[in-house]
């Protein structure tokens, strides 16, 4: 069986834990729990005729008090850059984190997740900014951990990208 490590990376309180809970257990809680360190979950998914055991590392959010522990990223086959669409600065944080992650583990598949799409009335991220990232060959998916919108799609897309990267890498 294929096993792949995925890291959830982003600023504090962007919905990383809620996205994992929605994906793994199909639940959403209004109660906020800050992640301390890292929380690890697993889920078996099927992509085409392949079964993939996803090991999901929900890493604490980065803020002015706590930096992302880059050692948590070792062995990751892919990652999500999770942004809270209602807080513009979380995108700026994600952009700087993406550079640091790439310096640490190299170029691996990742997806920019624009979370909290159920609150688009409060959205602070302009479409033009997202479009410019897509022009750089980034994949961006709008999600809502609350309504489950885009969650399965995001995990399936990243898993597919990781499998494709595995298929083209030298033995």
UniProtKB/TrEMBL annotation:
Residue stretches spanning the membrane: none
SMART domains: RAB, RAS, RHO
Organism superkingdom: Bacteria
Pfam families according to UniProt: Ras
Key words, A-Z: GTP-binding, Nucleotide-binding
Listed GO MF terms: GTP binding; GTPase activity
Name of the protein described by the UniProt record: Small GTP-binding protein
């Amino acid at each position: 069986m294929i096993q792949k490590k995925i890291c959830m990376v982003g600023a504090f309180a962007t919905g990383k834990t809620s996205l994992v809970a929605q994906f793994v257990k199909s639940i959403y809680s209004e109660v906020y729990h800050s992640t301390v360190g890292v929380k690890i979950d697993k889920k078996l998914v099927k992509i085409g005729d392949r079964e993939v055991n996803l090991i999901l590392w929900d890493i604490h959010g980065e803020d002015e008090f706590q930096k992302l522990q880059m050692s948590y990223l070792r062995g990751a086959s892919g990652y999500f850059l999770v942004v809270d669409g209602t807080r513009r600065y979380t995108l700026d944080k994600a952009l700087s984190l993406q550079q640091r992650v790439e310096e640490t583990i190299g170029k691996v598949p990742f997806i920019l997740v624009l979370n909290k799409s159920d609150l688009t009335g409060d959205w602070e991220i302009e479409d033009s900014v997202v479009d410019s990232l897509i022009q750089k060959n980034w994949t961006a998916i709008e999600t809502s951990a609350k309504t489950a919108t885009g969650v399965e799609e995001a995990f399936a897309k990243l898993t597919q990208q990781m499998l494709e990267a595995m298929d083209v890498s030298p033995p």
